[in-house]
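Summary of Year 1 activities. Much of the first year was spent building the evaluation harness for sequence design. The harness presents a backbone, in tokenized form, and records the residue chosen at every position. We chose the following record to illustrate the format because it has been used consistently in internal testing since the harness was completed.
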């Protein structure tokens, strides 16, 4: 298979949907020689929000420290290749094609022998672990796909388990209460490991600490063991002080914006401090971090070019929308024109309740996945908040209409689904591609 054929093969596995459980991935990895047991060290990161940012911060710090560092994350923004990176470099297309060509007959044989077919994400996980093992990486930063306990990434034996936060999301799979969701996420905690906890609500914190104690783990968490103090914040980045125990760093700089990123960066520093990374490596890794579609300014305002400021954010649930709204308020951005598209399985009314007070108008568009459902329903939510809207199914057309409807001194915000935001980003940054 070439690269495009390989991606089509993987995409066809989406028909098997989300199917929690480790039996399929464990059997697939066994047939691939158990690459996850070949000497790599693992850091495992979960959370309702912030796990991706915390993962990339952590990976960049470890790379700066000289480790051959792998990062597994999802979903991707520009290319499927982004899901598996080594020292910040996405897997080459040729190796994606080669690995999927190798895995395909193994999948066929599994099914012929009566095993249920692994899902798309399970194949992606196996592909990544195989790639990382063959490239002999030192350490893997592994972002959970969904939940933790039953997620395919939970086959690894991690030395550090990280839970960034716990909020209501993916209730169809993780449970309908904070306690149930926290229990799923605490499932990544392995015996005699170290546990780093973020800004957890008390109920979730109690469950995670209890699980850590049960598994004989040491624990540090934000607010008690880990502290940060914001020093400066603007649309170009943030500066903050950090402290954990006897260790303290002053005026650490990150290019990502939003108060929530200070929490994510603080967790990344804590993780790498436990590993023994130097302060210089921490500063370098954080300063060089880029993470598309996370409060990312893709267009700077330009009266000469007739361009407004355009910010794209992958906020897609209540917790994420609340953080986005807080960031807008912190920067004094009181009114934006928005391109919005959310998945039907999200709490759309509650989530948009945080954002719509900042919106003077909106273009509603359709996220490019089956779960988009009745995407037009967002218009009814806009109407209930007094926000005028138009419908535009095609994402590029939605972005074009939004740009035409506002002045160069106004702000356009794209938000609601990371899948939608990724396509919108192509409209505003068509030349930012991965082509190897």
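For this record, the design step produced the sequence shown next.
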């Amino acid at each position: 298979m070439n690269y495009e054929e390989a991606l089509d093969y993987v995409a066809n596995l989406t028909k098997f949907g989300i199917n929690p459980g480790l039996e399929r991935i464990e059997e697939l990895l066994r047939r691939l020689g158990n690459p996850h047991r070949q000497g790599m060290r693992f850091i495992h990161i979960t959370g309702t929000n912030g796990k991706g940012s915390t993962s990339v911060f952590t990976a960049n710090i470890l790379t700066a420290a000289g480790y051959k560092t792998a990062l597994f994350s999802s979903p991707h923004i520009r290319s499927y290749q982004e899901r598996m990176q080594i020292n910040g470099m996405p897997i080459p297309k040729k190796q994606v094609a080669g690995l999927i060509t190798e895995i395909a007959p193994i999948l066929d044989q599994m099914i012929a022998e009566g095993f249920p077919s692994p899902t798309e994400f399970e194949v992606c996980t196996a592909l990544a672990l195989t790639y990382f093992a063959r490239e002999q990486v030192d350490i893997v930063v592994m972002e959970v796909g969904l939940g933790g306990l039953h997620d395919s990434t939970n086959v690894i034996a991690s030395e550090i388990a990280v839970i960034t936060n716990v909020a209501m999301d993916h209730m169809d799979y993780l449970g309908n209460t904070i306690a149930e969701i926290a229990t799923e996420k605490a499932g990544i905690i392995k015996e005699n490991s170290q546990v780093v906890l973020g800004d957890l609500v008390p109920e979730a914190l109690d469950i995670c600490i209890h699980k850590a104690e049960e598994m004989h783990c040491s624990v540090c968490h934000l607010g008690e063991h880990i502290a940060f103090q914001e020093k400066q914040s603007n649309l170009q980045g943030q500066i903050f002080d950090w402290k954990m125990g006897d260790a303290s760093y002053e005026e650490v700089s990150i290019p990502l914006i939003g108060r929530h990123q200070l929490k994510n960066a603080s967790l990344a520093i804590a993780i790498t401090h436990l590993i023994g990374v130097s302060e210089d490596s921490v500063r370098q890794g954080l300063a060089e971090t880029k993470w598309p579609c996370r409060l990312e300014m893709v267009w700077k305002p330009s009266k000469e070019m007739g361009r407004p400021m355009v910010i794209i954010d992958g906020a897609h649930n209540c917790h994420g929308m609340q953080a986005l709204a807080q960031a807008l308020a912190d920067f004094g951005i009181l009114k934006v024109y928005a391109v919005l598209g959310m998945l039907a399985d999200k709490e759309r009314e509650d989530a948009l309740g945080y954002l719509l007070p900042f919106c003077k108008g909106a273009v509603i568009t359709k996220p490019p996945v089956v779960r988009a459902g009745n995407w037009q329903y967002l218009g009814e939510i806009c109407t209930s908040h007094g926000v005028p809207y138009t419908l535009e199914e095609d994402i590029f057309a939605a972005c074009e209409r939004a740009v035409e409807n506002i002045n160069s001194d106004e702000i356009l915000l794209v938000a609601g689904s990371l899948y939608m935001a990724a396509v919108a980003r192509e409209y505003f940054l068509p030349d930012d591609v991965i082509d190897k």
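Residues 36 and 156 are 6 Å apart (CA to CA). Quantitative recovery figures across the full test set are reported in Table 2.
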